[in-house]
Each structure stands twice: as C-alpha cells, then as structure tokens.
Specification:
By secondary structure, this protein is mainly alpha-helical. The chain has one domain: de novo design (two linked rop proteins), CATH 1.20.1440.60. It is 74% helix and 0% strand. It has 4 helices and no strands. Helix 1 runs antiparallel to helix 2 and helix 1 packs antiparallel against helix 4. The longest helix is centred in the middle third of the chain and has 27 residues.
Length: 118
Amino acid sequence: MLNSYKDLIVWQKAIKLVIAIYELTDKYPKEEIYGIISQIRRCAVSIPSNIAEGRSRGTKKDFTQFLRIAFGSGAELETQIEISKQLPKTKNLDYKKVDTLLLEVMKMLNAMIRNLNI
C-alpha cells in the first residue's frame, strides 16, 4: 500500500529527470538562463510537483487530472528538448539520459492515467 507520493516509482523517476535536466542545462550558454533554460527547468519541475499534488488531493478524479497536467508538462519538455537539439549552441550536447528518463516517465504517466480511467 502506498503511503505517500514519494512511494510512486513515477515520482521518483520524475525527480531523477529533474536532476538530469539541471545537469544538462548547466551546459547551455549562459545567455539562455532567462530563455530556454528557465522554460525547460520549469517544465521538468512541474512533472513531479503535479504528481505529488494530485496524489495528495485524495480523490481518484483529482489524481487523474494532475497526472494529465504532469503529462502535458512532459510533452512541453519534450518539445523544448527537441528545439534544443536543433539550436546551434546546444545541438551537440548529450541528450541520451534526459531522453530515456523522459520517455520512461511519459509511458508511466500514460499507463497510470489509462488505468485510473478504467
């Protein structure tokens, strides 16, 4: 039985994703600190934050809604990472860890949303 959102594997993976995002964006040009770095970090932090808030609300309906919001933040993050891969100053960075974690988190969120709607 789960006692806390911290027990959720998806939340734990989302936290790892946030750490990986911070490590990656530390390598971005400093002139992007108020641009894409800020956007990417906000999206990443939003994922585990929404999982935690939804789990703490106490109802299946609320939890599902916050998982959907987390999933949306993941899609937004995925888009920003794709943009970064095409920008001249960030295209040669190693995105493997972030890509892998984001894919895992998105699959888990999708499965949880689908199962809660049954």
